[in-house]
Amino acid sequence: MSGAPGEGDGNLGPLRAAWRAGRGPAVRALLDRDERVFLRQVLSTPCLEAVVGAEGPWLLGADGARILDFHGNSVHQLGHGHPAVVAAVVETLRTLPFCPRRYTNPSAVRLAERLVAALPGGLGAWKCLLAPSGSVAVGIALKLARYATGRPGVVAFEGSFHGAGLDAASVSGEPLFRDGLGPLLPGVRFLPPPTRGACRFGCRDTAHTGCTEALEELLARSPDVGALIAEPVRWTTVELPPEGYWQRVRAICDRFGVLLILDEIPSALARTGRLFAHEPFAVVPDVLVLGKGLGGGVWPQAAVLARAELDRVPEKAIGHYTHEKSPAGAAAALATLEVIEREDLCGRARRLGAHLVARLETLRDRHPAIAAVRGIGLMLGVELRLADGRPAATLADRVLYASLARGLSFKIGAGHVLTLCPPITIGEAELDAAVAILDAALAEAAAAEGLRS
User: Fold this and answer.
1) 0.85 exceeded by the pTM?
2) What CATH homologous superfamily does 14-80+344-449 map to?
């Protein structure tokens, strides 16, 4: 079975092999060339498809397939190739293709100003470092926390994902990126998240106060802990925190002098219906990490935003990277932020998200395997379970390939959650087309598994 629980859908099982065998000659030829030259790794090689074009919500396969992209690695809030972002990058490449690290440039400064101005207190209350990737930005945040607190310990959550680098993997609870690696960063403690499955602390209240009590107890006996890192909303399975959870976590962190680092790499920038994913939960972090869609799906760009009082070690190198202040990356990010504001993508995400949730809920009557539909903005998860309550991993895998055959791509989280993350610029007609594809794919997959649909 290729849909093993984890960060995403697997690629080593019989369904992936059958899918690959059914591709056209142009696709198979490029897939073969790809596998000959790239190191093989789960979730990647062998690849699903050979893509030769991308525009708006669509990917174009080498054999002419048109695929609605509800995955996009969460970089495509604006869709693929938004003209404003492309134009900004092209113009910058003509005038300032690279800025050496010892220098600054107008685009990088404007981007930092724009980002810090969007947080409470604005300019003067926050500072920024730019980075070439989200995983690198997480590493910067961890270094900053060590310097600022003098404490190396970190609290993170089981099942979380913060990046594939050794430092980011050390604070990720996803086994796929840490098992078998040997020693990682020391001093990392993991707690079960309050939103994943049955509560391990016996919480009977919907607020999950037992979960925050466990955090408080851990910090009380761990004086070396200087930071807690978490996703405000778990992207892979679209699990929202209980009411008031992050406010209680914020208060506990303050009590113990622990920095709250929120990783919004996949979830910020209008995806949840607000510019930042933490805003609906009435909490303000000490450090905020952005990435993925910040470059508009055109250029790799990430950022670390930190409270200005954490700027305490000017004699140290916290983010000493060659492409730290990339002019093209900054231009792409500025254009992205301008599009989000001009086209009111936050409001659009809330509106289209409500529409998509309503449409998906109608599928539950026809497909008993749908145990839950969860969403915030235009980030949705459809959880599949068998009649006895077990996660329906094999069924989810079949639904993925049945959907791909009909022209819809998405991610599988934890082996049994269909994670739907379309561009915010998508139209309602395309959302409805995706729901129709899911409807047919669920019926086909259930029949193949001998389940009632």
Assistant:
1) yes
2) Aspartate Aminotransferase, domain 1 (3.90.1150.10)
